[in-house]
Specification:
By secondary structure, the chain is mostly helical. It contains nine helices and three strands; from the N terminus they run ααααααβββααα. Helices cover 46% and strands 10% of the residues. Strands 2-1-3 form a three-stranded antiparallel sheet, with helices on both faces. The longest helix has 23 residues.
């Protein structure tokens, strides 16, 4: 079984003016597709080729074997980046629901005081993130939402040696990519403008309302 590049949930032009067609073209067809191709090259012909992305990302035993075999955890890194990017695309929508409603809105208001306060916290964490990585809104095991960050290919689903890292794990609800390739064409080194202009804020995706 080979991993496939999932289709975008919208067209390459549909996130303009927040993200340009050029950005989405390179990000999706070069970076995201590149992770898929690299992952297939690493797992084809091995016991991992029939595993799901979630198995590779979350299974500690597979992760340790990957580290021992590749020294850099290349299988995990590429599998996580495939998963992360797929989730990121679905965290944005050209015509989503605006501010969240229902259960998600209630949870955000209870945790952060208001949706505006959540946006400020989300922006602060992402803009302040050092180097490459991801910002996430996750649902913790106790049912509360939390803004967390992960470095490089890090994923909130990850467990380290069976112990939940309470500061950056949970069920992902929303993701924002802060690797420079996600925004440099449109915003250069102005990460704050990218984060504050991302469609994550302008069109809260319907799937989590």
């Amino acid at each position: 079984m080979s991993f496939k590049l999932p289709p975008l949930p919208y067209g390459l032009k549909d996130l303009v003016p927040h993200l340009s067609e050029e950005t989405l073209t390179y990000h999706y067809t070069k970076h995201h597709a590149g992770y898929v191709n690299k992952l297939n090259g690493l797992v084809n012909g091995t016991a991992l080729e029939n595993k799901s992305l979630e198995d590779i990302v979350c299974n500690n035993y597979l992760y340790v074997l990957d580290l021992l075999k590749t020294e850099s955890g290349a299988v995990f890194n590429n599998a996580a980046q495939v998963w992360n990017h797929t989730f990121y695309w679905h965290s944005m929508s050209p015509s989503g629901g605006g501010e969240p409603r229902g259960t998600v809105r209630k949870l955000l208001d209870e945790k952060f005081g208001s949706f505006d306060n959540f946006k400020k916290e989300f922006s602060s964490v992402l803009v302040g993130h050092f180097g490459s990585g991801w910002g996430w809104l996750v649902l913790k095991s106790d049912g509360t939402p939390e803004v967390v960050q992960t470095h490089d290919a890090g994923n909130p689903l990850r467990y380290i040696y069976g112990i939940c890292c309470s500061d950056n794990t949970g069920t992902p609800l929303l993701a924002c990519d802060v690797w420079e390739h996600a925004y440099y064409v449109d915003y250069r080194n102005d990460r704050a403008s990218y984060v504050n202009g991302t469609p994550c804020f302008h069109s809260f995706p319907q799937r989590i309302l």
